[in-house]
Design a protein that fits this description.
Layout: E1 5-6, H1 8-16, E2 21-24, E3 29-30, H2 32-41, E4 44-47, H3 51-59, E5 62-67, H4 72-84, E6 88-91, H5 102-114, E7 120-125, H6 130-135, E8 143-145, H7 149-157, E9 163-167, H8 173-185, H9 192-208
Parallel strand pairs: 1-3, 2-4, 5-6, 5-7, 7-9, 8-9
Helix pairs in contact: 1-2, 4-8, 7-8
Length: about 210
């Protein structure tokens, strides 16, 4: 099923035509600005009828999600949000705001992706930077710190990222949800991008052999 991205401009066009309803098919992604515009304009959201297709697809996507103590609250929010979309999630912790070391969590998530236990990983810390650095030390991991919808889409389409990292204290709740939606619905484009990934793999293997 094709994923439709609904932007603020799409909402403005509907309002300009005088319509009071917006059709949102199952699996569609609303940007944060689109959500705000719908809320403030009083548009009624009408759901499409293809939810069963989306549910089957999402149930086949296994995801490991983890965070350090700075991201534990946002992790719970994102976990619940994605669970409602029928993704198969494994929460690897942490589960309290007691201080933990982010490398432990990041490695836990990244390793599960590397060994094939799950398809994707999602990690949250304060900025999204240290956990990405850690995860990328695991061979075969392409962890991307994403800070908006464009970086999320590009990291999947161009870089075939298999771990998403976001900053729980750097971004708002709706932005993080939207980034996750875009990231999980985007597909690797291959072609010239695969050639570049192959070069990255050569570099990775070169240094692995030195150990």
């Amino acid at each position: 099923m094709a994923i439709r991205l609904i932007t603020e401009d799409d909402v403005k066009k509907i309002l300009k035509k005088g319509d009071r309803e917006i059709l949102v098919e199952a699996g569609s992604v609303l940007t944060p600005l689109a959500k705000d515009r719908i809320l403030h304009s009083g548009l009624k959201i009408v759901a499409g009828d293809s939810s069963s297709i989306s549910s089957v697809s999402n149930l086949q996507t296994k995801i490991a999600i983890g965070s350090d103590h700075t991201g534990v609250k946002m992790k719970k929010i994102l976990y619940d949000y994605l669970k409602k979309k029928n993704f198969d999630l494994s929460d690897v912790g942490t589960f309290t705001e007691d201080a933990v070391d982010y490398p432990d969590i990041a490695f836990n998530v990244a390793n599960r992706v590397a060994v094939g236990e799950v398809k994707f990983g999602i990690i949250l810390d304060a900025t999204g930077i240290p956990s990405a650095i850690t995860a990328n030390k695991v061979p075969g991991i392409r962890a991307a710190t994403c800070y908006n919808e464009f970086s999320a889409k590009s990291s999947r389409e161009h870089n075939d990222a298999n771990v998403l990292v976001v900053g729980a204290r750097a971004l708002g709740e709706e932005t993080i949800k939207s980034i996750a939606d875009i990231w999980l619905s985007s597909k690797f484009l291959g072609d010239r991008h695969q050639k570049r990934l192959d070069k990255i793999k050569v570099i990775e293997e070169k240094f692995s052999k030195k150990q």
